[in-house]
Amino acid sequence: MSEESDSLRTSPSVASLSENDLPPPPEPPGYVCSLTEDLVTKAREELQEKPEWRLRDVQALRDMVRKEYPNLSTSLDDAFLLRFLRARKFDYDRALQLLVNYHSCRRSWPEVFNNLKPSALKDVLASGFLTVLPHTDPRGCHVLCIRPDRWIPSNYPITENIRAIYLTLEKLIQSEETQDGFPIRIKAVHVVNEPRIFKGIFAIIKPFLKEKIANRFFLHGSDLSSLHTSLPRNILPKEYGGTAGELDTATWNAVLLASEDDFVKEFCQPLPACDSILGQALLPEGLTSDAQCDDSMRAVKSQLYSCY
Length: 308
What we know:
Elements: H1 3-10, H2 37-47, H3 54-68, H4 78-87, H5 92-108, H6 110-113, H7 122-127, E1 130-132, E2 144-146, H8 158-172, E3 189-192, H9 196-205, H10 211-214, E4 217-221, H11 224-228, H12 250-257, H13 260-267, H14 276-281, H15 289-306
Parallel strand pairs: 3-4
Antiparallel strand pairs: 1-2
């Protein structure tokens, strides 16, 4: 018998090991801060993030996930958990709830989240439906440019547009500089060249939005000078009255396509069905998990579809 086969013969199988003999799960990758000193200061002031307590806070959230949701298939990496802590200003309970809601949404909307990777959305990317401008605004925020007129319904369903938007947001928040919150925190929505009927529709919808959200919508019509009071011309392409050259969609498409492996790892692995522990944790008293899940997702989908 060869040395190799002998080694295989004498090595104990996993099944024969007792629970105490099993090796501990591998530790998640350690965190390396990439924030500038100015952003560290900003995070301390606005998010209550203290660098000296950061890893302690991450570990506390990790322990809560393992204790309260042991079957939740989620990354426990420091950088991933920090997204949720920052989004809820390091309130452990609210960060945990956001993490659970994030996974509940992903499991409840498979037509958007399953197989979410750049190569699956080449038609949307090629259409020029969306891109990210190369320069940030004066506050350091990235500018996502969405052009609904580039969507031809006969080419692909509307869910592909939503998938492309989500793909872009996921890519953006991989950078710490954009992690004011997760899901990503929208600072403002500027609408230009909207048809007159859109203003009427928005006037009907606006009372149902939270005041903070409603106040972040700006309808400029064809008045690009109004747009330039918020977004300076030097960061805008000439299509929007800017001086930054023609709108370039190819560069951002290349960034997304180069991230294929990351998205395959995160969104293209089999996920367990939404288990009763996860479902019941999000329920108002008296509702079944299926009913709550259907109702909440129907509301989200309706809001997204109405944007088109």
